[in-house]
Fold this protein.
Amino acid sequence: MIAEMNGIAAHAGSPFTPGYGRAPLVFGGHEDELDELTRVFQTLDFGENHSVLISGLRGAGKTSMLMMLQDAARREGWLVISDDASAGLMDRVMETTIPAMLDTLEPATRTRLSSLGIWQINAQLEYVDRHRQTKPLLRRDLIALSEHIGPDAGILITIDEVSSGKIRLRELSRFALEVSHALQAGANVMIVFAGIKIDLDALLEQEHTTFLRRSRQLDFRRLTPGETRHVLDESIRIGGRRIEHDALNQLISVSQGYPYLIQLAGDYAWRNNPRSAVIDQAAADVAHEKAITAVQRRVISRVYQDLSEKDREFVQAMAQDSGRSKISDIVKRMDVSAQYVQVYKKRLIDTGYVRSDGHGYVAFSLPYLGEYIRSMNDEPAAVDDGWDAFPPPPSV
Ligand SMILES: Nc1ncnc2c1ncn2[C@@H]1O[C@H](COP(=O)(O)OP(=O)(O)OP(=O)(O)O)[C@@H](O)[C@H]1O
Ligand SMILES: [Mg+2]
């Protein structure tokens, strides 16, 4: 992407990756967790890591972490099954993902697998269908795959976007039951779920998910200032440029360690004057404003849509203060009982959008959420969709 022209680096592509589900060039933080889980892929000594729950704020890097784990697992020769927790999960995995995976295995492995009576595999060693004499069960697939991949590797299953809809949860719990049977039979499987905290908690309350209660739980919030510095500085260096000291500090403070915002701020700073070898203060100033507008539009607005009506009332009541808010003020503003406010406070703290700030106070922990809500209140509710520029249609 970086072409050298006449000795001057032409910095064509930005090394930043703002966007959902785009793995960053430099993955900041979470080193201990990555090391520990990668060691499981190497040693198959699972400990508490047969199941992992990754919760966290929107845009905090859950999907990116799943991709890091998938890469690490593949490097160690593991099979990877990845999907979203949307309707039809079990069928998709059994009818599409696993058959597609069979076709990528070594011919000798496929020959061995065809003798198990689970899958029909043709003379060219391609998957044809399932044998219908046995009821297809995911556990059988996992056990067979695990046995045939040998004792030095396993199967990583990642399920993203866990949400707490009733039907979804029922499907997920059926899926978890199959995985737990495979584990009991000794299959080498690690399953990783990602979603917001409240949805993962709802998953744990389902039937058949007892084994998930022993899961390794990771909660993704913000990176530390040091990790943020590393992501920005290192991405820019790999991209072939450098950044002035003060400009870097400004990007760190704008992004507040929030992964999506780190990528946005870095990207805007990069694009300001892409042919210059150095990212300067002027670029950081431009990035500052643009990144905050963009994160509100792309991320914070989604966070707000995720909230229930009552949660919204709570954050609206909080947004009237520019700093932290007194719980007793929120009680007055919402015009409800103190216990009621406590319930919503706890929920919002669980999601990671709000935190306690000293006794009897709360503050926003998601950067710019308060500003977003205040700006929504300032703006007229109707958006300009361009219709006003036309004369009204003739009446019929
Ligand atoms: N550890 C990290 N270091 C640097 N940048 C990161 C990191 N993790 C994620 N990002 C960047 O943050 C953005 C959001 O990442 P991702 O889509 O993984 O978040 P998410 O938690 O899955 O969001 P959602 O809850 O909306 O699904 C992407 O631009 C990604 O490149
Ligand atoms: Mg995601």
